[in-house]
Amino acid sequence: SAVISQKPSRDICQRGTSLTIQCQVDSQVTMMFWYRQQPGQSLTLIATANQGSEATYESGFVIDKFPISRPNLTFSTLTVSNMSPEDSSIYLCSVEVRGREQYFGPGTRLTVT
Amino acid sequence: DAKTTQPNSMESNEEEPVHLPCNHSTISGTDYIHWYRQLPSQGPEYVIHGLTSNVNNRMASLAIAEDRKSSTLILHRATLRDAAVYYCIRPYNFNKFYFGSGTKLNVKP
Q: Is the pLDDT of residue A74 over 90?
């Protein structure tokens, strides 16, 4: 398994600002994923982040809005840019272990006012 | 299409077995079936995964139909801590997860 931490755990931000969310893993992993969970909804994959390459974004998500960094095998960041109230969600990172299983962080609860 | 079909909700009594069904009729021969659960205010938690044969671990058992078009997650003795949303996932593009709406399991004392 893998132990994943995220910072911040929650934040309240003003419209038009940006927030960077950090994801730290206790072991080296190749693949990391970022998800969004809107209030009362299921999880939606935002992008896949592999170390040493550009992040791959899913349909409906773009790099200008959600830039991702993956500087090494244990760390990644997701930035939510130019925020609006519609960005209020829980943002989660996950890592792939043993080529099949994913382990998730506790999430970052973002509220945009 | 990586979508799966699950009942929106199920209810169980504490210490009784629970069978959570999932339909994945368009699954290919190499797609694994994964089950995760999400307790309130937590990230999803890995439960089990399998390809063709039935699988067991300390949390649950996974029964996969012979034609692989459906599967059942079995919790042998439900506890109050098992109350969660259970997701049946068929990855797309090898390792990307599509989370459907899942089954909300309520466990009654």
A: yes
Q: Which pLDDT belongs to residue B53? A: 83
Partnered with residue A31 across adjacent β-strands are: A50
Residues of chain A with Cβ-Cβ distance to B87 below 8 Å are 42
Taking a C-beta distance cutoff of 8 angstroms, is the pair A1, A97 a contact? Answer: yes
CB pair distance less than 8 Å for B43 and A45: no
As beta bridge partners, residue A104 has A94
Express as a percent the part of chain B with pLDDT over 70: 98
- In the prediction, which pLDDT does B2 show? 67
Do residues B2 and B87 touch, judged by C-beta distance below 8 A?
no
- Bridge partners (DSSP) listed for residue A102: A96
B52 CA to chain A: closest CA distance, Å? 15
A19: confidence class by pLDDT, cuts 50, 70, 90: very high
pLDDT reported for residue B1: 65
d(Cα A13, Cα A31) in Å, to the nearest integer? 29
Beta strands in chain A (DSSP E): 4-7, 10-13, 19-25, 31-37, 43-50, 56-57, 68-72, 75-80, 89-97, 101-104, 108-112
Q: How far apart are CA A18 and CA A80, in angstroms?
A: 5
Helix boundaries (H) for B7-93: none
- Chain A positions touching B88 (Cβ under 8 A) are none
